[in-house]
Design goal:
Chain B: It is an enzyme of class 1 (oxidoreductase). The structure holds two protein chains of two kinds. By secondary structure, chain A is mainly beta. In chain A, strands 2, 5, 10, 11 and 12 form a five-stranded mixed β-sheet that branches. A four-stranded antiparallel β-sheet of chain A has the order 4-3-8-9, with no helix packed on it. A two-stranded antiparallel sheet of chain A has the order 6-7. In chain A, a hairpin with an 8-residue loop joins strand 8 and strand 9. The longest helix of chain A has 12 residues. Chain B is mainly β. Chain B is built from two helices and eleven strands; from the N terminus they run E-E-E-E-E-E-H-H-E-E-E-E-E. Chain B is globular and about 40 Å long. The two termini of chain B are about 25 Å apart. The chains are: A mainly beta, B mainly beta. The interface between A and B is large, with 90 and 92 residues.
Chain lengths: ~250, ~200
C-alpha cells in the first residue's frame, strides 16, 4: 500500500476485482503477478517480461526429501503439543500429480495455517484473536507411492488483513510442494467450499479464471470423514506442466 | 493433460511453516572449499524486503545432482544441494555452500537455481546465480549469451568474501532499476528452440 493513499474501501476494491476479471486469464491459470486489487503486488511484481529460456539440467531435477526429513507425526498438527487444539478437527487428503496425471511420488508437502480463531503463531500477526497454546500450525508430509498425502489439523479461521478497509481472508491452508523438477515448484493456498468471503478477497480473485479458482477449493468428502472424530476434505494438486524425463546424472 | 493448480502468494506468515534450522548451511562451517553467498532483496522502491524467502538448488563441485534425501535434516556428510533462507529485517540473506559445477553435457555454465517467494508475490520467481570466473562457459551459456550486458550482470554474483573465506554477493531486485532477470522455464518438456527469447507481454 502506498503511504500517500488512504486505504480503499471494499466497494472500491471489489470494483477493481470486477475490472480485472474482464481481462482474459493466463492460459496456465496462474495469477498475474501485477494484480492491482492486492496492493502489495505494486512494488513486488517485475516490470520486465520474464525471459523465456530452456531449463538447465539442474532445474530439471529437484531436491530430495525422505524419511530423514519428515516424521509421521509432522502430518498431524493436532498432536504437536500436550493438549488438543481448539476448533474443528479435519482431515485433508489428496494426491499430487503432474500435468500428465502421473503421481508425484515421495516428494515433500509443507503446510502452514492460522488457528481456529484466525490467528497465526507469528509476531507479525496482530489480529486480536487468541493464540492456542496447543496449536502451532505447521506440518510436513512426504507423498506415498501413489502421490497421496494426508494431514490431520483443525479448520483455520478467517482473519482480517490491511489490504483495504474491512479486508478479510477466507479460511485457507498454505501449501508448498516440490515435483520431480525444480521448475514444478509450487506454493499455493487451499480453500474450503462455499466460503462467503471468496468474492471479496483479492488474493483468491487474483486467479481470474473461474474454473482455475475452483481448483483451489477442496471438496468435502464424507468418505474421508471419520465417525465420532473428524470431517474430511479432499484436495488434489496438479503441478505445472508436463515435466521432462529426469536426466540420468551419470548418463548425460 | 490435467489443468494445473494455480499459484498463490506465500503471504507474510510462512516463518513457522517453511524455514528450517540450518536452512542456509548447505555445508558445515570449515568445510574445505566452502563459499558464502549473501545479498539483499529489494522492491521496486529500492526498499529492503524483510519477508521474502529464497530457495537455492545446485550441483556440487563434482557436477552431480544430489540424489540422497536429507535436504531438511542433513546428515553432515552428504551434499544435498538445497538451501532455504528467509530474509531478515534488513532484507538480507546468507548461505554457505560449495561451488557448483556444470553436469556433464550441460549447455549451461555452472549456476545455482533460485526461487524467490514473498508476500505480495502471487507466483514465485525463478532466477539463477552465475559466477564471474567461468568466463568462457558464461559466454556460451544459452541464457547469459542472449542478454544485454546490463541485464546479464544481474545474474552474475560479485566476489565479496569475508574473514571466513571466499564469498559472493547476489542481490535480488524484484522491480525497477537493475531489476533482476527472472525466468519463464515453463517450456520444459515441450519442443522449443534452444534459444532464449523474450515473451510477448500479454
Amino acid at each position: 500500500m502506498s503511504a500517500s493513499q488512504q486505504p480503499a474501501t471494499q466497494r472500491e476494491v471489489s470494483a477493481e476485482i470486477a475490472t480485472a476479471a474482464g481481462v482474459p486469464p493466463r492460459a496456465d491459470g496462474h495469477p498475474e503477478r501485477a494484480y492491482g486489487p492486492y496492493r502489495s503486488t505494486a512494488l513486488r511484481a517485475p516490470q520486465q517480461p520474464l525471459v523465456v529460456s530452456p531449463p538447465s539440467l539442474t532445474e530439471l531435477a529437484a531436491p530430495v526429501f525422505g524419511a530423514r526429513d519428515v516424521a509421521p507425526i509432522d502430518a498431524d498438527l493436532t498432536r504437536h503439543h500436550t493438549g488438543d487444539p481448539l476448533g474443528e478437527r479435519i482431515i485433508v487428503t489428496g494426491r499430487v500429480l503432474d500435468g500428465d496425471g502421473r503421481p508425484v511420488r515421495h516428494q515433500l508437502l509443507e503446510i502452514w495455517q492460522a488457528n481456529a480463531a484466525g490467528r497465526y503463531r507469528h509476531e507479525g500477526d496482530q489480529h486480536p484473536a487468541p493464540l492456542d497454546p496447543n496449536f502451532t500450525g505447521g506440518g510436513r508430509a512426504i507423498t506415498d507411492d501413489e502421490g497421496r498425502y494426508r494431514f490431520v489439523t483443525i479448520k483455520p479461521g478467517a482473519y482480517p488483513w490491511r489490504n483495504h478497509t474491512n479486508a478479510w481472508r477466507p479460511a485457507h491452508i498454505h501449501f508448498s510442494l516440490f515435483g520431480t523438477a525444480f521448475t514444478q515448484r509450487l506454493v499455493t493456498q487451499m480453500y474450503f467450499p462455499g466460503d462467503p468471503l471468496f468474492g471479496f478477497d483479492p488474493i483468491f480473485q487474483s486467479v481470474t479464471d473461474e474454473k482455475a479458482q475452483q481448483r483451489l477449493v477442496a471438496a468435502y468428502d464424507h468418505d474421508v470423514t471419520e465417525p465420532e472424530w473428524a470431517l474430511g476434505y479432499r484436495w488434489d494438486i496438479v503441478l505445472d506442466g508436463a515435466h521432462a524425463t529426469p536426466p540420468d546424472p551419470d548418463g548425460v | 493433460m490435467l489443468e494445473l493448480t494455480p499459484s498463490q502468494t506465500v503471504g507474510p506468515f510462512f516463518a513457522f511453516g517453511l524455514p528450517f534450522d540450518g536452512g542456509g548451511d548447505v555445508v558445515p562451517a570449515g568445510t574445505p572449499g566452502a563459499i558464502t553467498l549473501h545479498g539483499t532483496v529489494r522492491d521496486g522502491a529500492g526498499a529492503p524486503v524483510p519477508d521474502a524467502l529464497l530457495e537455492f538448488w545446485q550441483t556440487g563441485p563434482d557436477g552431480r545432482l544430489p540424489t540422497r534425501s536429507g535436504s531438511l535434516h542433513r546428515d553432515g556428510r552428504s551434499f544435498t544441494g538445497f538451501a532455504r533462507v528467509p530474509t531478515d529485517r534488513a532484507g538480507d540473506y546468507h548461505l554457505r555452500t560449495l561451488r557448483p559445477a556444470a553436469p556433464s553435457g550441460s549447455p549451461h555454465a555452472p549456476h545455482l537455481a533460485v526461487a524467490v517467494f514473498a508476500r505480495g508475490l502471487l507466483h514465485h520467481l525463478f532466477t539463477r546465480v552465475y559466477f564471474p570466473n567461468h568466463v568462457e562457459a558464461n559466454a556460451a551459456d544459452p541464457l547469459l549469451s542472449v542478454l544485454d550486458e546490463e541485464r546479464r550482470a544481474t545474474l552474475v554474483a560479485v566476489p565479496d568474501g569475508g574473514p571466513t573465506g571466499p564469498g559472493y554477493r547476489f542481490d535480488v531486485r524484484m522491480q525497477g532499476p537493475g531489476e533482476t532477470v527472472f525466468l519463464d522455464l515453463s517450456t520444459h518438456g515441450l519442443a522449443q528452440p534452444p534459444v532464449a527469447t523474450t515473451e510477448t507481454p500479454a
